Amino acid sequence: MTLQPIVVTLQQLNSYYHRLLLVVGPPASGKTRTLRTWQQVLNAPSINLNLVLSQRLLELPARQWPGQTQDLLHELLGGADPLLLDNIELLFDPALQLDPLRALKAASRSRRLVVAWPGSLEGGSLIYAEPGHAEYRRYAPDDIADLIAVDVTRLRREE
After folding, report:
1. How far apart are CA 138 and CA 54, in angstroms?
2. Class of residue 132 by CB neighbours under 10 A (exposed 0-12, middle 13-18, buried 19+)
3. Is the Cβ–Cβ distance between 39 and 84 less than 8 Å?
4. What is the Cα–Cα distance from 20 to 11, expressed in whole angstroms?
């Protein structure tokens, strides 16, 4: 997906209920570099979610994190459209008791989100972490049918 198709893809997102584009890849695969390029071309804001969300959570007692995280996420994302999110690993922290994909889907109903997803696409499933890890998630093809997910390694080959 070169730069021209990303603009077309972002336009296509307007017809989706969840206007969410996941750029999927393991660490050091080029997700951040891809988002930075798109940020410049699209003149769109980008958020390091780990940084801004952790700063806000530290203002709260840990026992309030599960009940407040979704609201904080909506507040932090504001109204920018499109908005690029990088470094989302904090969403997987078991202490937050959050379903990261569901949270991102909810946030994408009011804006187009382009999110660097640290993981993989395998057999149509979206994966985060390894089986047995406390933060492991596997989303079935039906869970991601209403959004766009692309493998960053494929994107890098096409650029």
Report:
1. 24
2. exposed
3. yes
4. 11
> 104 in helix, strand or coil?
helix
* Contact indicator for 151, 126 with CB cutoff of 8 Å: no
Nearest to 136 by CA among 120, 124, 123, 147: 120
Confidence of residue 1 (pLDDT cuts 50, 70, 90): very low
pLDDT tens digits for 82-100?
999 999 999 999 999 999 9
SS3 label, residue 82: coil
E strand or H helix that includes residue 24: strand 20-25
Q: Distance between CA atoms of 101 and 140, rounded to whole angstroms?
A: 11
